[in-house]
Amino acid sequence: MAIESIFLILILVFSVILHEIAHGYMAEALGDSTARRSGRLTLNPLPHLDLWGSVIIPLILLMTNAGFLIGWAKPVPYNPYNLRNAWWGEALVAGAGPAMNIGIAFVFSILLRVNAGADFLPSSFVDLTASLVFINLLLAFFNLVPVPPLDGSKVLASFLPLHISRWLLPHAVVARFGLPFGFLLMFLFLFFLWPVFFAAVSWLFTLFTGVPLGV
Question: What keywords would UniProt list here (predicted)?
Fold first, then answer.
């Protein structure tokens, strides 16, 4: 496997780990310490890695030139009944993960903007930084898609009447249809809407960095 592919997987893995840690810290800020007691508020990758989502799926996508790279870590556990804000708590915890990825993308996009004017960084480093920005934007906005079990389903559920929101919460989907149904919805989204989604994230990449994707 090319060294670039290894770096891409490392960027993806640590981006999803920071995404999950953000969920845990937000839950703790709202009164639930489950993530800390479970040893999940750590940068050590081992407690976070999911064999399929962090290793196998990303490797398959890279080796088959699938045209996109996606992955996930083990979800950080939290107890919604411990959150101080009963209605908005789950939405805040869910939104913290994408917010972390957007923050990472924003910080490194500043570096790309500065380099575009001065051109002082090696091209290989610029390419990796661009990949880091794009992957984090991809993770953020993919997770905001309102399809269970993605974070966007919890965010949207908080804005809807209770009898409707219950159908969007991931634990409700699992109870009614089983977890595979949620993943089926997610992969159907990827299959049918990926070109539109990719174009939207590419536009956001240019908005953040000031340069077109791939330049």
Answer: Cell membrane, Hydrolase, Membrane, Metal-binding, Metalloprotease, Protease, Transmembrane, Transmembrane helix, Zinc
